[in-house]
Specification:
single chain, 404 residues, alpha+beta, Butyryl-CoA Dehydrogenase, subunit A, domain 2, Butyryl-CoA Dehydrogenase, subunit A, domain 3, 4-stranded antiparallel beta sheet, 10 strands, globular
């Protein structure tokens, strides 16, 4: 593939850059509307305003069809805008699950009427979506989930517990996989729905993280009624639908998280260690060079996947490479940058330099990145089996009825 912008792509890039420069709130305001800040309600309100402004200007999900609020832009144009958005430090956290995962799943499986009513609101940030997949005994082994879905006339009745559900306590809707037939092997008895998070019978309980905020939840379903019209995909085909969501998840989580390589280099340019510019020191230069090579590898792998999307293919198992490589690098860089602070690195950080506080937050947040959306080990299994074609690990319960 050609990594230079064509004339029309260069135009989109210049437009995006100019629009972001003219419209993006300043760094302080951006921080207060980011994901994981102390005043979550205020952050969400600000983030919604920003998302609506993006939508008005035609930049929100520009690759979505016009009838859902996009502008039918090519995957490459989308990539260009997202690159510029990242470079400018624009926050996207609250809407990533909706736009990156629920949105593509609805586009593939919802009715036209549902798409017309739900997708434009999602795109404008009016509705926030969450992803109700993991359970206490079903994370890596998601197909072992136990949330029950029992058919009752035109409804389904859902009972059970989800956990680690990011944003469940403020989400308007969720996508959910439940077990509709326990007599089938684990992957075959699942059905996929979307639910209104304000339905009677849903309660959420926030879980606090080491970073300070409590932005994910335990979610309890006590005989929650969900209309059959909210089923996505066929009864029993929930696993296939979930795979669409998960492949999109790895693509969106595989973005290079910030602060990363560029922020580190910017910081090092201003730093001296032992009286000499940090970047002139051989051991630091060697590490930075390694991260440069890896961050280019991540960027090119992402571009290759976007190219495949532009040819009408779905994101495949290769998206796992992105997430595996970029989250490990994110953690290493945060660790290194925090270490540069010497003993100051252990102090938390409100009244310290913004750039330093960002790395400290990243240091605390980064381990969870290597777990959320598929752990390193699971991603390695996927790459081994589905990209490299190596023999699969033994799966003794694969063909056994779940209730046995
Ligand atoms: C910040 C954060 C946000 C999250 N948000 C959401 C969300 O919005 N919605 C949602 O549904 N879930 C969410 N999750 C949950 C996440 O998807 C799970 O934590 C993840 O899938 C791992 O599952 P688990 O925690 O049950 O760990 P386990 O599956 O119990 O894994 C424990 C350890 O065993 C290893 N392991 C497991 N199986 C294998 C194997 N076959 N081979 C080798 N090693 C193995 C794992 O790699 C891991 O190290 C979130 C998690 C985090 C940390």
């Amino acid at each position: 593939m050609d990594f230079q912008d064509s004339a029309s792509e260069a135009e989109v890039r210049a437009d995006a850059r100019a629009w972001l420069a003219a419209n993006l709130p300043d760094a302080e305001a951006r921080r207060s509307m980011g994901y994981g800040v102390a005043d979550e309600a205020a952050a969400l309100a600000l983030a919604k305003t920003w998302q609506a402004r993006k939508a008005d200007a035609g930049w929100a999900c520009m690759h979505w069809p016009a009838q859902y609020g996009g502008r039918g832009a090519s995957p490459i144009e989308r990539l260009i805008f997202e690159e510029e958005e990242r470079r400018a430090g624009a926050p996207t956290g609250f809407f990533e699950i909706g736009l990156g995962m629920a949105g593509p799943t609805l586009q593939a499986y919802a009715s036209e009427e549902q798409k017309a009513s739900l997708l434009p609101r999602m795109l404008r940030g009016q509705d926030v979506w969450c992803q109700l997949f993991s359970e206490p005994a079903a994370g890596s082994d998601l197909a072992a989930l136990r949330m029950r879905a029992v058919r009752d006339g035109d409804d389904w009745v859902l009972t059970g517990q989800k956990t680690w559900t990011s944003g469940a306590h403020y989400a308007d809707y969720g996508i959910i996989v439940a077990r509709s037939d326990p007599s089938l092997p684990k992957h075959r008895g699942l059905t996929f729905f979307f639910v209104d998070m304000r339905s009677p019978g849903i309660t959420t309980r926030q879980i606090r993280q080491i970073t300070g905020p409590a932005d994910f939840d335990d979610v309890f379903f006590d005989e929650v009624r969900v209309a059959d019209s909210q089923r996505l995909g066929a009864v029993g085909a929930g696993w296939q639908v979930a795979l669409t969501t998960l492949m999109n998840e790895r693509l969106s989580l595989g973005d290079v998280a910030r602060p990363g390589y560029e922020e580190l280099v910017a910081r090092l340019r201003m730093s001296e260690i032992g009286g000499r510019p940090a970047l002139e020191q051989a051991d630091i230069a060697a590490r930075v060079t390694d991260w440069h090579v890896r961050s280019r590898g991540v960027a090119f792998t992402r571009a290759r996947i976007i190219t495949a999307l532009s040819r009408g293919q779905e994101p495949g198992p290769e998206a796992s490479i992105l997430k595996l490589a970029s989250t490990a690098m994110f953690q290493e860089i945060a660790d290194f940058a925090t270490g540069l602070e010497d003993q100051g690195g252990v102090l938390l950080a409100e009244d310290r330099q913004a750039g330093v506080a960002d790395f400290q937050f990243a240091y605390l947040f980064s381990p969870s990145f290597r777990v959320a959306g598929g752990t390193d080990q699971i991603l390695r299994n996927i790459i081994a089996e589905r990209v490299l074609g190596l023999p699969p690990e033994p799966r003794v319960d694969k063909d056994v009825p779940f209730n046995s």
